[in-house]
Amino acid sequence: MADQQIAGTAADKRGQADSGVVARSIAVIGAGWAGCAAAVELARAGYKVTLLEAARALGGRARRIETDRKQLDNGQHILLGAYSETLRLMQLTGIDHKQAVLKLPLQMRYPPDTGGMDFVAPSLPLPAPLHVAAALLRAKGLQREDKLSLARFSTTARWMGWQLNTDCSVSELLERFDQTPRLIQLMWRPLCLAALNTPPERASAQIFLNVLRDSLGARRSASDMLLPRADLSALFPEAAARYVEAHGGTTRCGAKVQALRSIEGRLWQLDISGAAVGGTWSTYFGGVVLATGAAQAAALLHDLPDADTANLCHQLTAFTPEAITTVYLQYDAGTRLDLPFYALQDDAYSHQYGQFVFDRGQLDAAQAGLLAVVISASGPAAAQPQELLAEAVAVQLAVVFQRPELGRPEWFKVITEKRATYASTPGLSRPDNATGMPGLFLAGDYTAGDYPATLEMAVRSGANAARLLTGSAAQ
Ligand SMILES: Cc1cc2nc3c(=O)[nH]c(=O)nc-3n(C[C@H](O)[C@H](O)[C@H](O)COP(=O)(O)OP(=O)(O)OC[C@H]3O[C@@H](n4cnc5c(N)ncnc54)[C@H](O)[C@@H]3O)c2cc1C
C-alpha cells in the first residue's frame, strides 16, 4: 500500500524530505468534487497523490448511493455551461461530457395551463444579450410589463458590470430593479433557490449577479443547462480517481484522517483510521490539501499551534447550513413527462413543496418511470414525515400535470441532505485557499470565490489549491 510505503519515523522522513521524496508526496483529505479536482491537478503536475476519503464512496455531497431499490444520486444536480473548470477536468479525466450530460438551452418551463410561464432560450448560438432578448420575445405566460422588467434587469446589471458597491439581499436588488411580482415569483425566486440554495430574502445579491453574469450575461452555451445522465460518482469523482492512479497515486475510501500535525514546518503527519488502512496509521507528506467540508476542516485545524488557526476555525464554523431534499417517485416504466424537467410553483403553506421535477427516464434508460422532485432550502418540507412529504409531492404532480396516476407511485425515496450547502448571505466572509501554514491549503465549495456552494465552486477551489501548492513547492 502506498500509505505504508511512505510511513516511517519522523527522522526517516526528515531525511527523505531533504532528498525531495516526501516533499513531492501530497495528501488530499476528502474526495468530494473539490478534493478530486485538487488530486487530478496535482497528479497532472507530477506529484505523488494520496486521496483519502472517510466515506465508502467517492463524491462527497455529489455522489451515487445504493438504496434497497436501486442506485440513485444523493440529490438531483444540475450543471451550467458556465461550469468551465468542471467541464475541463471531466474532459481531462476521460469523461465525454457530450455523452455524460443532456444539454438543454436555458429555460424556465412550467407545466401548461398552471398559470406559470414558458421561457426558453432559442437554440441558435446568439451572443448575449440577444439570446435572452429572443427568449423574452418568445416567452409565453409573461405580460408586457414582466418582459420589460426582465429586459430592464439585464440592461441595468450589464451597465453596472454585474457589480454592486455594497452587497444586499436578492429581494432588495429585485426591488431596486423594479421587478414585477410575477417575474419574481416565476423566474427570480426559483433561479435564486436553485443557484444559491438560499431564499431571496436572505441570499447575497452579488453572488446571484455573479452566477447571472456567467450564464444569462455570457454567450449562449454558458447559459446551457446540463443534466447528468451518468450517476454523480461516475460523472467525475471515479474518473478522477482512475486518473490519479494512472499517474502513480493512490485513492483510499474508508480512510478517515483523525489528526494533522506539522513537523518542523516541512512535513505533515497524518493519523488515519478506518478499514482501508487496517486500523490506525501515521503517515508523512510534503503537503496537504484539506478538502473536507468547512466544519470538518475546523476540527482538524483546531489543534494546530499556529497563531492564526483560531481565527480560521472561527470563520470555518460560522457557515449556516441549508438543506436540500430530493423526492424520488417510481412509476410504471412507461410513465414519461413531455419535457426532461419542469419548474413547479411551490407553496409550503398548501403543502406544494416541489420546485423542479426531473424525468430521470429521459436521462438514463435504466431509470425509466423515475421522477426526481427537488426542494431547495427545504427546511419546512424536511420537517415533514417522509411518507407525508412523498405523498404531498405526488399529489402536487398529479394536480399540476392533470394526471391522476402520478398521485400513486409504486415506491418513493426521500433524501434530505441537511448540510447540502451553506446559506449564501450578503457579505459572507469565506476563507482563502491558503492557510498561511506552509504546505497546507484548503479546498471546498466554501472557500473565497465568485460562486455559491456548487460543483463548479468546489472544482475551482480544488484546482486553485493545487496550483497554489505546486507554486509554493516550486519556490
Ligand atoms: C442534494 C444536493 C443538491 C445539490 N444540487 C446542486 C446542483 O444542482 N448544482 C451544483 O452545482 N451544486 C449542487 N449542490 C452542491 C454541490 O454538491 C456541493 O457544492 C459540492 O458537492 C461540494 O463539494 P466539496 O468537495 O466542496 O465538499 P464535499 O462534497 O462535502 O466533500 C468533502 C469530502 O470530505 C470527506 N471527509 C470529511 N472529513 C474527512 C476526514 N476527516 N478524512 C477523510 N475524508 C473526510 C467527506 O466524506 C466528503 O466526501 C447540491 C448539493 C446537494 C447535497
What's the CATH architecture of the largest domain?
3-Layer(bba) Sandwich
Number of helical runs? 17
CATH class of the largest domain: Alpha Beta
Proportion of residues in helical segments: 25-40%
What is the name of the CATH topology of the largest domain? FAD/NAD(P)-binding domain
Bound molecules: flavin-adenine dinucleotide
Could you name the CATH homologous superfamily of the largest domain?
Answer: FAD/NAD(P)-binding domain
Percentage beta strand: 15-25%
What's the overall geometry? globular
Radius of gyration, in Å, reads 23 Å
What's the structural blueprint in terms of helices and strands?
Blueprint: H1 2-5, H2 10-18, E1 25-29, H3 33-44, E2 48-53, E3 64-66, E4 71-73, E5 79-80, H4 84-92, H5 97-100, E6 101-104, E7 107-109, E8 118-120, H6 130-138, H7 144-159, H8 170-176, H9 181-196, H10 205-214, E9 225-228, H11 232-235, H12 237-246, E10 250-253, E11 256-263, E12 267-274, E13 279-285, E14 287-290, H13 294-301, H14 309-316, E15 321-330, E16 341-343, E17 356-359, E18 370-376, H15 379-382, H16 386-400, E19 411-422, E20 440-442, H17 455-474
Parallel strand pairs: 1-2, 1-14, 2-10, 14-20
Antiparallel strand pairs: 3-4, 5-9, 6-9, 7-8, 11-12, 12-13, 15-18, 15-19, 16-17, 17-18
